[in-house]
Each structure stands twice: as C-alpha cells, then as structure tokens.
UniProtKB/TrEMBL annotation:
GO molecular function, one term: transferase activity
Matches recorded under Pfam families: DUF2064 (PF09837)
Name of the featured protein: Glycosyltransferase
InterPro entries: Nucleotide-diphossugar_trans, Trfase_1_rSAM/seldom-assoc
SUPFAM superfamilies, alphabetized: Nucleotide-diphospho-sugar transferases (SSF53448)
Keywords: Transferase
UniProt source species: Pontibacter mangrovi
Length: 202
C-alpha cells in the first residue's frame, strides 16, 4: 500500500428520487436508482484492489454497512457548498494529512478501469495535474500533487463548460498536466449503450 497516495470517491447516497434525476426523467426514479447502484458497484469493483488509500465522500450520512467495505474504504461526509467547494475541501484535507498524490473520481463512469486510475498516479510522477475529460464536457477524474484552489472556483458545475474552464486555469497557472482518455459519464438515457439499456429493461 502506497501511503502517500489517496483516491477520493464522491458518491451520492443511493436513495429513491435523489440520484440520476436527468435519467429518472426518462425512465422513472426506480430504474434510475437501479442504474445508480450498478454504477456504484462498478466503481467499487474498479477501485477495490488499487494499492492506494481510498476514501468515500457521501452527500448525506455515512453508512457503515453499505457496499463499501470499511476495511478498504475510509468514509466521510462531503462539506457544504457547491461541487467545487466540496472537492476543494476534500483535497485540502488530504494534503493536510500528508498525502502527496491525490486523485478524485465520481461514480458515473462505466468505462472507467483500474488501469486508467493507475495511469493517473503514474502521470502525477511527472506532471502536477492529471485530468480525465468526459464526453459531456466535464471530467470524470482529477488528480494533483498539491492543492490548486483555482481549479475549483468560478466554474459552471454540471455543464459542458467544466473541462474547458478547468484547462484554462491549468494553462494560466502554467502547470505541467497530462490528459487521460476521453470517457462517457452516465447522466441521461442516451449515455447508456444499447446493450446496457437492454440489461436494465429500458
């Protein structure tokens, strides 16, 4: 276990009517919750064996008896504020605790693999920032070796502008950066391929 490396996972508590609201508008809240639980299970499968410390940040209360094993994942609650404030606070905590390479992911990407996350840490050995752009204009992964608050400020969160705005900050700060493959986040029905839609009876 590499003690200087931390993986942050931002998740929503899987509650009916509170997850994947854009998807729910098309398929109903029950199916949207089913898809989200599948996404959480995929994210656990992808991250569980990685040789880094792992910390799950919940939107609501911490559930000690959920699908994230306590012996593998530290558990905390996200701070108040917009997504930028929540992520900045989580990174700040990590660096204060002595971690030197910190990566954050969400739980919306079925294309994410252990190899891609491992590559993010490899890129941080020679770059200050690593980003995994998402097809919708956001990003599915962000990593850095120390806190750059500007990357979390003045962003139009949950829009197609997030990746572009973040890259502008990275370049203006003249930070050496690396990009990972562009992947798809699951937010709407069109983000699910035909086979996955059939799996869920959509």
């Amino acid at each position: 276990m590499e003690k200087n490396k931390l993986l942050l996972l931002f998740v929503r508590n899987p509650e009916l009517g509170k997850v994947k609201t854009r998807l729910a508008a098309a398929v109903g809240p029950e199916k949207a919750l089913e898809v989200y639980v599948h996404l959480l299970q995929h994210t656990r499968q992808v991250t569980q064996q990685l040789p880094v410390d792992k910390r799950v940040y919940y939107t609501g209360t911490v559930n000690q008896e959920d699908l994230w094993p306590n012996q593998v994942y530290q558990k905390r609650v996200q701070t108040e504020g917009d997504l930028g404030k929540k992520m900045q606070a989580a990174f700040a905590e990590a660096f204060l605790e002595g971690y030197t390479s910190v990566v954050i992911i969400g739980s919306d990407c079925l294309q994410l693999t252990p190899e891609i996350i491992a590559r993010a840490y490899q890129e941080l050995e020679t770059h200050e920032v690593v980003i995994g752009p998402a097809l919708d204009g956001g990003y599915y992964l962000l990593g850095m070796n120390c806190l750059y608050p500007r990357l979390f400020q003045n962003k139009q969160w949950s829009t197609e502008h997030v990746f572009q705005e973040t890259m502008q900050d990275v370049q203006q700060l003249q930070l050496p950066y690396a990009l990972l493959p562009r992947l798809s986040d699951i937010d709407e029905l069109s983000d699910l391929d035909e086979e996955t839609q059939q799996d869920f009876g959509l």
